[in-house]
Amino acid sequence: MASSRVLLALSLALLTLTVASLPGTPTALSTSYYNKRCASLQPAVRSAMARAVASDPTTAAAVLRLFFHDCFVNGCDASVLLDDDTTTNLIGEKSAFPNANSLRGYEAIDAIKSAVESACPATVSCADVLALAARDAVSLLGGPSWNVRLGRLDARIASRDAANANLPGPGSSLSSLLDAFQRKGLSARDMTALSGAHTVGRARCATFRGRAGGGANGSGGEVINATYAAELRGACGGGDGAVAPLDVATPDAFDNGYFRALMERRGLLHSDQELFNGGSQDALVRKYARDGAAFAGDFAKAMVRMGNLAPAPGTPLEVRKYCRRPN
């Protein structure tokens, strides 16, 4: 009887090992996943990301945003990087409404992936490259660093409809933001910390014109600093494509300036100011505004949790050699 149980246990262990080794089968994420597979991976990503940021500091915010928009749509599977392909009827996420006129940084990821392929051919997924690049983007701008769990695979498919349905928009209310993050298994604290990514980067006038045109009050009824509203109206004089910094004080430094701006009623987007508008997150915004270390620590933890979002069971997966198309 005992020997039968031993044989059964060994058989199950062998089956588990066999399934985990099949191409396209997700594995548990681990900080040591590439230690033997590609020991030079993280230095290669860091070096390529550093070159991109040195050439254009705004690339860091762009890459960070790519990671968010990837993970929030069917998990962290690099589907956001796929180009449309009429020959295979692939309609990707790049043309979704939240992405079409705002996402960029694809060329930076292409360059990083190329460097990684040179070091370790057909080994590292684009999803893992993007996760590492996002971490390095933050730290290169003076923000926190964290140990990235690795072992993701790349989707062979993408969904424009899912991108349109899952990504919170600039006009989102606090309740809709909380709901969107909760549906991903992320807490209210995670949501507020991750929103702090808006301490870097810029947004198009099309996303904040309602705030700019509201005088002392934005279109959603939230209070906006009158001087700031006038500045935004000036920025929008250049049309919908004109941009303004999400954190007017330090737009290319990853710090807690975003939260200080919210307390001053200088949130660029309606969804930003909703975090400090007499609601449930006001106290946390105040804490982050006065304690940058607390924000940095919570942001790093929330990035790890968001990075754990996995594609749905049955999603066709692989390690893409080129991030813009399936193999």
UniProtKB/TrEMBL annotation:
Protein name: Peroxidase
Compartments where found: Secreted
InterPro entries reported in the protein's UniProt record: Haem_peroxidase, Haem_peroxidase_sf, Peroxidase_pln, Peroxidases_AS, Peroxidases_heam-ligand_BS, Secretory_peroxidase
Top-rank lineage group of the source organism: Eukaryota
Chain positions of site Transition state stabilizer: 65
Positions annotated to bind heme b: 198
Similarity-based family: Belongs to the peroxidase family. Classical plant (class III) peroxidase subfamily.
A Pfam family per the record: peroxidase
Protein EC: 1.11.1.7
Cofactor entry: heme b; Ca(2+)
Gene Ontology molecular-function annotations: heme binding; lactoperoxidase activity; metal ion binding
Disulfide bonds: 38-120, 71-76, 126-323, 205-236
Organism: Digitaria exilis
Binding annotation for substrate: 168
CDD domains: secretory_peroxidase (cd00693)
